[in-house]
Design a protein that fits this description.
By secondary structure, this protein is α+β, with helices and mostly antiparallel strands. It is built from 3 helices and 6 strands, in the order E-E-H-H-H-E-E-E-E. The chain has a 4-stranded antiparallel sheet with strand order 3-4-5-6. Strands 1-2 form a two-stranded antiparallel sheet. A hairpin with a 2-residue loop joins strand 1 and strand 2. The longest helix is centred in the middle third of the chain and has 11 residues. The radius of gyration is 12 Å and the shape is globular. It starts with a strand and ends with a strand.
Length: about 90
């Protein structure tokens, strides 16, 4: 497995491979929009962030953490539900 500055590249690849499964709940929509101060649809917003070349994905416990553009997106690793996102 490739390591790049402490980040496991396999984890980002796993999220990209399952990109069609990434979703959030109704409450998640409101929470993500509020935390990131966006009005757009948050799942598409988060997927665009994940796809950025400089996004870094780590897995801790049952969640993936996507760090990019001064924000952190938390995604459940088994359901691919975006739990939350917030600014650093």
């Amino acid at each position: 497995m490739m390591q790049k500055s402490g980040v496991n590249m396999h984890e980002k690849a796993t999220l990209i491979e399952n990109i069609d499964k990434i979703h959030t709940t109704e409450m998640g929509v409101k929470r993500i929009q509020k935390n990131l101060e966006i009005t757009e649809e948050p799942v598409s917003h988060c997927i665009l962030k994940l796809k950025k070349e400089d996004s870094k994905v780590t897995k801790k416990g049952k969640n993936y953490y996507v760090e990019v553009d001064e924000c952190i997106i938390t995604i459940n690793s088994s359901s691919f539900t975006i739990i939350t996102a917030h600014k650093k």
